[in-house]
Every structure is written in structure tokens, then in C-alpha cells.
Design a protein that fits this description.
2 domains; disordered N terminus; alpha+beta; Chitinase A, domain 3; elongated
């Protein structure tokens, strides 16, 4: 899940601290300053240079791994670190991604791939633009690379080589043609079947738990009153404003709006009522258990098959992502076959 981020984005397109974290460091790495969950937002946590993996003799450190984790889960900075329940999954994904990128980098070097001077210059200029001032850039280079612009250039060049290799070996081969998309659609009709569903709004009157007969009678009287007001509304917005004001159910905070809901997820009496309505109609009061509810129908989608033109764009993206993942997995397996990879 967390190791499927796109490998085709140049690292220099990210914010300064994250910009160089898309790939593990081949040269000696200065540990990044990233927030840790037990510490305050301002307190830095410096990961150690402790080795965590070795790829054909190249040591990858804890600092490299932390960078990879924060690239996979950039929200960590807002959360004061990676949430405890996600730590294991994200670390495993980061380890796989870090080793994969190191293998790709080494293969690019083996093939004697190079980065054109124009591409290098553009990447450097784009990276510099991510800083608010030249002083901020120099401060970053000093803290991350001991002031060495050569080490920074090496990191950028490494990222560009990885990007170039993956464009050639994965992205260019993962293009899905319109004919392939159409063929998939035709061969998998069940995937595009949609159940009957309704989009609607509700205003509900909910009596107390274990309500007495008098309390139920009072709730019904109130529901009848709200139904008369709801019936007078002309638009879903007017109905929604009333729901926000008088409804007892949790949907009031969304103006009573329920997203498209399949009929098998609705009470039978609700389905029966909605099925007899036209879009824009407001129902009478119906009772579901001890809850009195008024419905407004906003859309009705009969059961059927989604049209190809309606799903084509998303289906193309899904098929292309699937093919990309397959090609990346195959490439990873191929590179590992002739590599020495040591993990803890």
C-alpha cells in the first residue's frame, strides 16, 4: 500500500527537506532532522547512521530509511511522527522501496547511463526555487551536506538517473491503448454492473430510548409538523437548511444528505417509499423502528451496467497503474536475482 508512490516524480519537486528523500543515499548521508512522535514539533530527531541494509556492498542507513518513510508518509510532520499503528507497514514499504531504488541506481551506473547537462541544470534550478531565499538554500546545504554542493549535485544526479531508468524500463512500457481498455471492459461485464441506488436527504425525529407511548405520540406530532415545513421547500438546499436546523440524526451536519446508497443497505420501508417518489419529491412521515423520518429524493440510479464512456478515463488509469506495478515487481525480482541484498 505505502510502497506504490510514483517513481517518476523528480525529487527536486518536493519541499526542501523532503526533496532529497525520494531515494536512498549512495554517498555518505547526513541524517535529516525530522520530528519524532514523543518530541515537540520544533525538536529535531536525528536518525543514526546505523546500517539497516547492504546492497552489493553499499550500506543503507537508518537515516536513509527514515527519509524514505517520510517520503511515503509526508503527513508525519503534521502528526508529530508516523502513527504507531502504521509504523510497521510503512517501515516495511520504505525498506523495499529504498532497496529497489538502490538496485535501480546501480543498474543505471552499470549501463553507463548519464544525465545530460541541460537536465542537470534544470533540476538544480528547480530545486533552488523551492527555497525562500539563497540564504535558506545555503543553510540547507550546510546542514545536510556539510556545505558541499558536490554532494548535493551527486544526490540530484542519482535521482535523475533513477527517474530516467524507470521511465525507460517501466513507464514507457506501461502505456495502455484505447483498444486494451475497451477489451477489458467487454471481457469483464460483471465488474461494471451497478446496483440500484438512491441519493436522498433525511429529516429525522428520534424519541428517547425506551420511549413511552406519550413520548412516541409527541415525536410523531413533531415529525408531522416538520414534514409540513419540508413539503414547502423547493430545493435540496432549502430542505438541507431545514434538516440542519431541526433533524435529530447525524446527517443534519451534512444538510441531511446521504450519498448514493444501494437498496440492499436501506430498510425495506425506505426503499419502498423512495421507489414510489420522483426526483425532488418529499415523502410523508415514515417510521423505521422508533424513528420518524421524512425523505427527499435527489437521484435514483436503476440497476444496470456503467457505460464505457463513463468509466473509460478511470479504467485507463487503473489498468495503467496495475501494469506499472507488475512491471516494477518484475524489475525488482530481476535485479535481485543477480544482486547481494542483506536485510536485518
Amino acid at each position: 500500500m505505502y510502497c506504490t508512490r510514483s517513481p517518476f516524480l523528480l525529487v527536486i519537486s518536493f519541499a526542501p527537506i523532503l526533496a532529497l528523500s525520494q531515494v536512498a543515499s549512495h554517498a555518505p548521508t547526513v541524517p535529516p532532522q525530522v520530528p519524532s512522535a514523543p518530541q515537540s514539533r520544533m525538536a529535531p530527531m536525528v536518525p543514526s547512521a546505523r546500517p539497516v541494509a547492504k546492497v552489493n556492498g553499499t550500506i543503507l542507513t537508518e537515516a536513509d530509511l527514515v527519509r524514505e518513510e517520510y517520503a511515503i508518509f509526508p503527513y508525519a510532520r503534521q502528526h508529530n511522527g508516523i502513527p504507531k499503528e502504521l509504523e510497521t507497514e510503512i517501515r516495511q514499504g520504505a525498506m523495499k522501496m529504498m532497496i529497489f531504488e538502490e538496485l535501480v541506481y546501480q543498474e543505471a551506473l552499470r549501463r553507463k547511463m548519464t544525465v545530460p547537462a541541460t537536465s542537470m541544470q534544470k533540476a538544480e534550478n528547480d530545486f533552488l526555487k523551492t527555497f525562500p531565499s539563497p540564504e535558506a538554500f545555503n543553510e540547507f546545504v550546510q546542514s545536510e551536506f556539510h556545505g558541499s554542493h558536490e554532494l548535493l549535485d551527486a544526490k540530484i544526479r542519482r535521482s535523475l538517473l533513477i527517474d530516467s531508468f524507470l521511465r525507460s524500463e517501466v513507464k514507457s512500457r506501461s502505456v495502455i491503448s484505447p483498444a486494451e481498455v475497451r477489451a477489458f471492459y467487454d471481457k469483464n461485464p460483471a465488474r461494471f454492473q451497478v446496483p440500484e441506488s438512491f441519493i436522498f436527504q433525511t429529516i429525522s425525529v428520534i424519541p428517547p430510548a425506551n420511549a413511552t407511548a406519550d413520548q412516541l405520540k409527541e415525536a410523531r406530532a413533531r415529525a408531522d409538523k416538520e414534514q409540513r415545513e419540508a413539503k414547502a421547500t423547493k430545493t435540496n438546499n432549502e430542505f438541507g437548511l431545514l434538516a440542519e436546523k431541526v433533524s435529530d440524526d447525524d446527517y443534519r451536519v451534512m444538510e441531511g444528505q446521504h450519498k448514493a446508497t444501494p437498496v440492499d443497505q436501506l430498510p425495506p420501508q425506505v426503499v419502498k417509499t423512495l421507489a414510489a417518489m420522483k426526483v425532488g419529491d418529499v415523502s410523508g412521515v415514515i417510521q423505521v423502528g422508533q424513528i420518524f423520518t421524512i425523505l427527499r429524493l435527489n437521484a435514483h440510479t436503476p440497476a444496470g451496467k456503467e457505460k464505457f464512456d463513463d468509466v473509460k478515463a478511470n479504467l485507463t488509469k487503473q489498468l495503467q497503474q496495475s501494469k506499472t506495478n507488475q512491471l516494477r515487481a518484475a524489475l525488482d525480482q530481476k535485479l535481485r536475482q543477480s544482486a547481494s541484498v542483506e536485510e536485518p
